[in-house]
């Protein structure tokens, strides 16, 4: 393996070419010890996304929504395990450091959303935000794209769910609280570990674990239904924390819980294994063995239903432990229902839409 590219605040330690690229490069020592020098600081590059639509539809049978919005492509949180990393290959970028440092933004997302919601054939169903990359990642603090999207959804009384690992969501409590009063929103706070040191390596630019619990508590105080997403559950590294995470979230006010077993599709498998050997070399083989035990002998099984929970004895044990702790704490209920009957199409040019008369 080439010398790791250790950048402060970054998760990946390499930047291998995407799987569709015909050429790749590798650093070589020029005889002057160039590879021994520390790499220069890695700056985040902002790229404007030119997408013509903002709602993405799916027909997957193992997820509870058929449409989603992702204001950003790539994610500055830098979570090494992120299953969305391979999507950067479609853009000609690496799933490694490029994914967390070359971020595509959608500044026209709110306008595009308004146009799509206003179409005559559009029928309301809950929108998922945060299903791929985090809508409250670091760039959101300046870009405020998520805030603009929420304003459109609040205006049209459109139901939505949000999954995040960022305390920045507290900024939008004014909108979320009002929508929650109408039964239009619930939030899933993603917590991988309660160990600050581990979290700093796993997800270097995400909020600290306790900060996420604080945000979850503030959401509940504001009347926003909130659940905990124990995701991903990582064999050997975090699986022993399962009950502790659910208990901590329950104490913070979470209504229910969900979990997802570690997913390592495509490039993520190699990136994660590199990271393991760098940070936890004595546990690396044990972790990957447990991963393969739960994925039919492979690093990943993309089959519907299997991809989220895994299979085999280890996966069954995790599922059993999760069911027991949720039942004990009364957190085994379904996610809060969302209303669709309040939806009203956005006005066009300040005038009432003709759809009002349909």
Give the % helix: 25-40%
Low-confidence stretches: 350-358
Estimated structural class: alpha/beta
CATH architecture: Alpha-Beta Barrel
Q: Class, according to the CATH hierarchy?
A: Alpha Beta
Query: How many runs of DSSP E, i.e. beta strands?
Result: 10
Order the strands across the largest sheet as they lie in space.
2-3-6-7-8-9-10
Shape: globular
Number of helices: 12
What's the short version?
The chain has 358 residues and is α/β, with parallel strands linked by helices.
Can you walk me through this structure?
- This protein has 358 residues and is an alpha/beta fold.
- The chain has a single domain (45-332), classed as TIM Barrel (Alpha-Beta Barrel), CATH 3.20.20.
- Helix content is 32%, strand content 12%.
- It contains twelve helices and ten strands.
- The chain has helices spanning 97-101, 109-117, 140-143, 145-156, 173-181, 196-202, 209-221, 242-252, 267-279, 284-293, 306-309, 313-329; strands at 45-48, 55-57, 67-69, 72-73, 102-105, 127-129, 160-164, 185-190, 226-233, 257-261.
- It has a seven-stranded mixed sheet. The protein has a three-stranded mixed sheet with strand order 1-5-4.
- Strand 7 (160-164), helix 5 (173-181) and strand 8 (185-190) form a beta-alpha-beta unit.
Defining traits:
358 residues; TIM Barrel; 7-stranded mixed sheet; 12 helices; 3-stranded mixed sheet; alpha/beta
């Amino acid at each position: 393996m080439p010398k790791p590219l250790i950048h402060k605040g970054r998760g990946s330690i390499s930047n291998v070419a995407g799987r569709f690229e015909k050429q790749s490069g590798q650093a070589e020592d020029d005889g002057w010890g160039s590879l021994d020098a520390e790499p220069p600081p890695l700056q985040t590059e902002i790229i404007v996304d030119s997408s013509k639509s903002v709602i993405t539809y799916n027909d997957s049978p193992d997820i509870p929504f058929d449409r989603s919005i992702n204001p950003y492509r790539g994610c500055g949180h830098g979570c090494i395990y992120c299953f969305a990393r391979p999507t950067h290959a479609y853009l000609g970028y690496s799933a490694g450091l490029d994914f967390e440092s070359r971020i595509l933004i959608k500044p026209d997302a709110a306008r595009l959303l308004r146009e799509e919601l206003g179409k005559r054939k559009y029928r309301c169903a809950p929108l998922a935000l945060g299903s791929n990359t985090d809508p409250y990642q670091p760039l959101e603090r300046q870009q405020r794209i998520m805030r603009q999207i929420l304003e459109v959804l609040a205006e049209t009384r459109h139901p939505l769910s949000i999954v995040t690992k960022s305390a920045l969501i507290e900024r939008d409590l004014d909108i979320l609280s009002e929508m929650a009063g109408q039964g239009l929103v619930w939030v899933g706070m993603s917590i991988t570990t309660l160990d600050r040191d581990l979290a700093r390596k796993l997800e270097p630019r995400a909020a600290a674990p306790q900060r996420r619990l604080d945000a979850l508590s503030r959401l509940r105080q504001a009347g926003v239904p909130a659940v905990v997403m124990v995701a991903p559950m990582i064999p050997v590294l975090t699986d022993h924390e399962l009950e502790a995470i659910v208990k901590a979230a329950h104490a913070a006010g979470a209504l229910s819980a969900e979990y997802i077993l570690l997913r390592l599709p495509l490039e993520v498998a190699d990136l994660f294994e590199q990271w393991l050997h760098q940070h936890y070399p004595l546990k690396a083989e044990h972790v990957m063995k447990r991963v393969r035990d739960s994925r039919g002998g492979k690093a990943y099984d993309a089959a519907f239903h299997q991809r989220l929970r895994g299979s085999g004895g280890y996966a069954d044990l995790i599922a059993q432990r999760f069911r027991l702790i949720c039942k004990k704490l009364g957190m085994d209920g379904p996610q809060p229902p969302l209303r669709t009957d309040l939806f009203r199409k956005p006005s066009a040019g300040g005038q009432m839409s003709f759809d009002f008369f349909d």
